[in-house]
Amino acid sequence: AELALCDASNGSDGGGNGGGSSLVFVLIDEVESLAVARRQSIEGGEPSDGIRAVNALLTQLDQLKSYPNVYVMCTSNVSDAIDEAFLDRADLKIHLGNPSISARYEILREGLNEMHRVGLISDRGVGRLGRAEVAGFADSLGDSLGSMALGEGPGSSAESESSDTFPSAKRHELMLWRICQSLEDESGRHLRKLPFLCFSKHVRGDSTTLDRFLRALHTQAALGKEEDSAEAGGRALAPSSHQGQVMEM
Hints:
ATPase_AAA_core, ATP hydrolysis activity, ATPase AAA-type core domain-containing protein
């Protein structure tokens, strides 16, 4: 922020108005560590240093208003912990949720491409996987054809049957799209790790085929949902030993 003010001051028009020649973006990641809600700090009996830090931050933000070339962007995963006065100063608040199904497809497709590049997936089917917009037609057909490709639907218990029903590339696209439909609650960070986690848990040997790996990925996705449900149930049933405290899980 000091660099931004310095640049803006150097380009000032002499009348106190900021006119810096450079467009400056200030990014504050995990802003709740600097702009923690003061009311919670007071009620929690925390040291006053944190409150003074928030006051100083708000003062500096107010000083930046006269510099039109300076933009401040902040990110947080714990928006409830941010001070109300800080939120009031934000001109635009954007909630970025978990990736859409098209984004999930692309994330997993990139992971499969990387595994093929290093030899963990042996066949060439990965390179023929269409992008999300190509596989998007599975949004309407995925419940039937995708389930059959994964061996879930009636008359699809044998892998050879699904192989005969669809061309290899399209069948793999349907399988991957179907897997993505079951991962709506997963973050992008977890999705990027999922293929490699699946390989370490379900693959025996140095490599596997794309068809077998997609089936293993489908199994891992189902196991992950069961583990999340069990963990959530355990938290709900566990007796609390922190009465009177607000805890972020």
